[in-house]
Amino acid sequence: MPTNTKTNYSIGAFAKAVGLTAPTLRYYEDQGLIEPHRHANGRRYYQEDDVNWVKFLLHLKGTGMSISDLKQYVTWRAAGDATIPQRLALLQRVKSDFLVQFNEVQHHLQILNDKINWYEEKEAGIMTAPEDFASYLKRFGHHE
Amino acid sequence: MPTNTKTNYSIGAFAKAVGLTAPTLRYYEDQGLIEPHRHANGRRYYQEDDVNWVKFLLHLKGTGMSISDLKQYVTWRAAGDATIPQRLALLQRVKSDFLVQFNEVQHHLQILNDKINWYEEKEAGIMTAPEDFASYLKRFGHHE
DNA sequence: ATATAACTTCAAGTGCACTTTAAGTCAAGG
DNA sequence: CCTTGACTTAAAGTGCACTTGAAGTTATAT
């Protein structure tokens, strides 16, 4: 006999479990992203499934999806398997946008790294005839 | 004799050159990030150096630096070489924060990719006995 | 000469994603 | 029993990074 312990999280306990605050959870609920159960007295409760769902939402959010993107996704999800093509297309668009940003951000990091190295060499007195950052970049073929 | 063409950009031309709008440039100036020259009549003008400077600022911004971080950097820069240690420390902190975010975001992408693949397999009817996403993730050792 | 496009300042408005406040209800521990 | 903490709603406030508007001046093209 498996222990049938259905965990019923209060909003506060759930907030800790997913790393959000209770107000944020209420806000997400207002936005239609979560639909917790309610006790007879009106208090929300959440279950294990909801933990997974919110964590998944946070992954999507972390790839750049806005609340309204997420809401659209949730709406389609609630409509059933017929909307899988739409959901797939949405996620593919998100991925494509993400990859553009990802490349840009890697370039930004390269420049930041170059600048840090430039300062470190300057500090260490490695630069004999102090070279300006622009020509330092060019030496590595790093542009702009 | 080299053609001594000092380019004097108006704010509009400069905006195009750096990919910002004129109001944004005025905003950055208010924040102390740029200090354009002025014609006798009060109109701003920018030069080639300013293009490089703004592009560099945008790289730093793109690594997650806020306007106020940038302002601090600019203030130290204006104070001369004595502040190189502070600037270096700031950029190292920025890099460190960036790398944390970068790892997180890569994990988010992995989950997004997995979800897309899961939908694609479901769509294509590759999933014989439809597998839920949670166990699909586990098959790849991708957690949460 | 005159229209219109680009510039000037300063203040107010926008969008996003929360966060905080106010006023009240409810549950659990001593 | 009663205090304390957690919960409820609805509305207002916050922070960031711009963006827009208003009112006026100046430069350029016809």
Automatic annotation (TrEMBL), chains A, B:
<keyword id="KW-0238">DNA-binding</keyword>
<feature type="domain" description="HTH merR-type">
    <location>
        <begin position="8"/>
        <end position="76"/>
    </location>
</feature>
<dbReference type="InterPro" id="IPR000551">
    <property type="entry name" value="MerR-type_HTH_dom"/>
</dbReference>
<protein>
    <submittedName>
        <fullName>MerR family transcriptional regulator</fullName>
    </submittedName>
</protein>
<dbReference type="Pfam" id="PF13411">
    <property type="entry name" value="MerR_1"/>
</dbReference>
<dbReference type="InterPro" id="IPR047057">
    <property type="entry name" value="MerR_fam"/>
</dbReference>
<dbReference type="InterPro" id="IPR009061">
    <property type="entry name" value="DNA-bd_dom_put_sf"/>
</dbReference>
